[in-house]
Amino acid sequence: MTLPRDPLGITDNRAAARPIQLETHGLDVIGDADRRGTPRMLFWPWFGANVSVLGLSYGAFAFGFGISFWQALVAGTIGIVVSFLLCGFVSVAGKRGSAPTMVLSRAAYGVRGNRLPSVVSWMLTVGWETALISLATLATATVFTSLGWGGGTETKVVALMVVAALTVVAGVIGFDLIMRLQTVITVVTGVLTLVYVGLVAHQVDWDAVKAVPGGSAQQMIGALVFMMAGFGLGWINAAADYSRYLPRDSSGRGVIGWTTFGGSLAPVLLLVFGVLLAGSSPQLSRSIADDPIGALTTILPTWFLVPFAVVAVLSLVGGAVLDIYSSGLALLSAGLRVPRYLAALWDGCLMIAGSIYIVFFAGGFLGQFMGFLTTLGVPVAAWSGVMLADLALRRRNYDDGDLFRPYGRYGDVPLVPPLLTLAATAVGWGLVTNTAAHWLGWQGYLLGPLGLGGRTGAWAYANLGVVVALVISFLGTLLLSRRRVRAQEALAPSPAPGEEVLRA
């Protein structure tokens, strides 16, 4: 079976002419006959998914760590590029297999053992949905206030209802509607972002930017890891979903290179200008912490407020609908046996509840956002380490059928990968903190015992736990799983998966 339409536009050229229908497929595989194209085509989905004005706000986020312009630029660029490089490596799994990322992960974790990382992946995508819808709501209220059209509670309620409805409807209907929306949103967002840069370029005060004092190495590391969690590590659990449409003999280097380039290009360019804007105006930088998109409209001429707000909101909704689709697939991979559209609808309800909390009760976006990224960034990094090491150990393509069979070569619940992930996560959570989100005050319990200054010391905000979790799980998998992988690859190919095993 194949999806009704692939995001690269290389599998079914007739898809665009087909009426939009409710997608009923779940954990589908891509047959070899439908795998076409070249790695170069990976540039467009990755570029389109990451060209958003939210990238400008990351300049202020970086300054929030107390570092200078050059430190923010170096930390941000390295964090973005390295995190998307990891996505590139995971994307290689897509061309080796024929299933979504969280199904390919079963080769390492076992068919039902993979339910643990699938649940984490689901939490990550639901969290991103919530964050993006909250930003769209806050940005709309800010624009309405600037125009004198209200902007209070009533405006936020209506805005939340509209953007949530767009997201849920698109996520429930599925790929046909989502990808058609994304094509339009990507082009319009890219053009209007360039217009925005041209209109506010005069706001840059180079002397003020250079005067921003520098921070410590620990603060710079904290900014770097935050950028990793906010960009590539936020996509890595879906990194193979695009490349699975490519032929198995496609260049691995090409897959890695085009994924990294496509994902990094827009965020790096937007980060540079965002750092310049935030460094030029401390007031703007502080405003971005509470309303990352809406604050950017405060320096615009009035005539451009509405076009910018519409495009900014659409770009956020565009990201949210991709997340709600992926979160539904993650729920299916975790073992929930319902139609895909019902899984997406359930996620939409959770997204709305979380958005209501952030918009009306949280009292500040940045603290909750940073807490979310660093907290979930740790188990995602631990999963990434296992996945990357498992991929590095393999010399053959995945066996499609056994990815869906608990009794196949990949097993049901092998003990080492889940235990390694849990151990790496426990260590990682002990090395991260976030005081702005009080519900995360339990973290950082290893900073004192390891002589790193405790929860208020110099290393408290370096977010070391994300990197440590990735390294522990990566090295642990290389050491403990080599013999298991060799045994799997020595077996003869299994029969192709049938409809009944796709539900495993």
UniProtKB/TrEMBL annotation:
Instruction: Indicate the transmembrane segments per the record.
Output: 43-63, 69-92, 122-145, 157-177, 184-201, 221-243, 255-279, 299-322, 343-366, 372-393, 414-440, 460-480
Domain of life where this protein originates: Bacteria
In terms of InterPro entries, this protein maps to:
Pur-cyt_permease, Pur-cyt_permease_Fcy2/21/22
The way it spans or sits in the membrane comes to: Multi-pass membrane protein
Q: What are the UniProt keywords, alphabetically? A: Membrane, Transmembrane, Transmembrane helix, Transport
A GO-annotated cellular component: plasma membrane
Where is this chain's protein located in or outside the cell?
A: Membrane
Q: Please verify whether the record's keywords include Transport.
A: yes
Q: Which Pfam families match?
A: Transp_cyt_pur
Give the primary localization class: membrane
In Gene Ontology terms, what is one molecular function of this protein?
transmembrane transporter activity
Keyword Transmembrane helix in the entry? The reply is yes
Question: So what family is this one in?
Answer: Belongs to the purine-cytosine permease (2.A.39) family.
Q: Which PANTHER family match?
A: PURINE-CYTOSINE PERMEASE FCY2-RELATED
Its name, as the record gives it, is Allantoin permease
Q: What is the lineage of its organism?
A: Bacteria, Bacillati, Actinomycetota, Actinomycetes, Kitasatosporales
